[in-house]
Write a sequence for this structure.
């Protein structure tokens, strides 16, 4: 379908090079195809014709993010919100970005303006409530919760319950929050979401029997609800009642072909070390849902654990084609390309995919981006990413190995050997990967006074 659409858009642009909608569609495809610079050129043409088009500005923000220019992406997103006159879609995207950066006051300002335009918007109210909780502004958080209840819709009431639970948990402690859920459920006013939250709390407190009773009561009250049965299955899994969990899941699979149910079966089988059965169940699920992201994700993980790296890369490439906007998919693909392939083309591909990770504070993303910098010969900057990555992922031997290589490259040999020792300390003694073998050689040489670096 896309080639036909692209041909049509090309035809439109050949007749009118400044056609706004065609340029936006073309830029969308360019971003999805990892051509953000080309997308920026297309969008500049579009904005020359319509400088205040919110969609074009949002696309431009996304293109800047893909190039790794987070600051410019944020500034452009602010322009999009202004151009949209604080429309919910643009405002929520911007506010969530600010919230993730813990810039609570600017995020609040964005949402307040959006509420003036769209009073009673549930998602805006929920995010505003979460900001007040983060600021420990309990009075205003309570006001948001009360506003949600006044809307008196099923969704708003559920979100109000969730918000109230968070307020109690942060303000008065976990016990008070759980007491709130208990009272809510006992009054028959609570939603199934409140029951699920209480089940999780009971599991976290080690009260497995109580959690299981709640899950069984949930299914009894909603006998035709697939999600309720999945909650029961998950509760059994959490309690390591694997036979009971498998029975619940297989019975549910007869009622629905939802891929999430098959995924739960794979989890149960894997937890019992029934690896072949888990893989067979996964392949069977993929025959009916070949493009399901979660199933593909598990398959890629299985392949990676089996050291079938090229097959795992193939899966991630497929997932990336489906959704190139996913940071996690982009990270995993770039990480495998940079870690397990040595050719320049793969390194360039990894850099293009991962440059949006520049400035990240997430350890897994720091490792990916830092290792790509190392591979590109940018050693000092690589250490700036790989050091916090190693601190954040102390049990990942490859991350420790990456730090060792970068430290060695800037002449800090003693620190590098320490990092290689850290890698070996957390690696399985039978780990077949080349990186672990190299770490062993370097540490052995250091221990014997040799030089194998």
């Amino acid at each position: 379908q896309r080639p036909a659409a692209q041909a049509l858009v090309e035809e439109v642009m050949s007749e009118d090079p400044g056609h706004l909608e065609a340029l936006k569609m073309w830029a969308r495809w360019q971003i999805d195809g990892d051509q953000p610079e080309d997308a920026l050129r297309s969008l500049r043409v579009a904005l020359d014709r319509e400088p205040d088009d919110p969609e074009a500005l949002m696309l431009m923000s996304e293109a800047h993010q893909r190039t790794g220019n987070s600051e410019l992406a944020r500034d452009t997103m602010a322009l999009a919100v202004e151009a949209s006159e604080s429309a919910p879609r643009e405002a929520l995207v911007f506010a969530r970005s600010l919230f993730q950066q813990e810039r609570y006051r600017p995020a609040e300002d964005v949402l307040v303006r959006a509420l003036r335009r769209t009073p009673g918007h549930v998602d805006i109210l929920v995010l505003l409530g979460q900001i007040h909780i983060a600021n420990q502004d309990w009075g205003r958080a309570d006001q948001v919760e009360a506003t949600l209840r006044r809307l008196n819709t099923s969704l708003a009431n559920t979100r109000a319950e969730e918000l109230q639970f968070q307020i109690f948990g942060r303000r008065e402690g976990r016990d008070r929050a759980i007491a709130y859920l208990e009272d809510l459920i006992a009054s028959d006013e609570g939603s199934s979401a409140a029951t699920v939250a209480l089940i999780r709390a009971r599991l976290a407190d080690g009260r497995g029997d109580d959690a299981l009773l709640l899950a069984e009561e949930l299914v009894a009250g909603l006998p035709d609800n697939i999600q309720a049965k999945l909650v029961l299955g998950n509760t059994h899994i959490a309690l390591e009642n694997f036979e009971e969990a498998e029975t619940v899941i297989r019975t549910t699979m007869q009622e629905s072909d939802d891929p999430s149910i098959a995924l739960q079966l794979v989890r149960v089988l894997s937890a019992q070390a029934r690896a072949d059965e888990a893989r067979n169940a996964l392949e069977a699920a993929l025959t009916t849902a070949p493009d399901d992201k979660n199933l593909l994700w598990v398959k890629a993980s299985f392949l990676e654990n089996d050291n079938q790296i090229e097959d795992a890369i193939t899966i991630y490439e497929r997932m990336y084609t489906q959704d190139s906007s996913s940071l996690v998919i982009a990270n995993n693909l770039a990480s495998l390309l940079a870690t397990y392939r040595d050719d320049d083309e793969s390194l360039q591909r990894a850099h293009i995919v991962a440059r949006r990770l520049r400035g990240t504070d997430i350890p897994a993303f720091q490792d990916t981006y830092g290792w790509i910098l190392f591979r590109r010969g940018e050693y000092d900057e690589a250490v700036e990413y790989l050091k916090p990555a190693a601190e954040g992922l102390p049990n990942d031997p490859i991350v420790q190995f990456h730090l060792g290589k970068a430290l060695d490259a800037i002449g800090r040999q003693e620190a590098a050997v320490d990092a290689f020792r850290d890698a070996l300390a957390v690696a399985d003694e039978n780990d077949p990967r080349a990186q672990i073998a190299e770490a062993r050689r370097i540490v052995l040489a250091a221990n014997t006074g040799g030089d194998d670096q």
Summary: The mean pLDDT is 92. DSSP finds 26 helices and no strands in the chain. The CA atoms of residues 205 and 354 lie 40 Å apart. Residues 154-171 form the longest helix (18 residues).
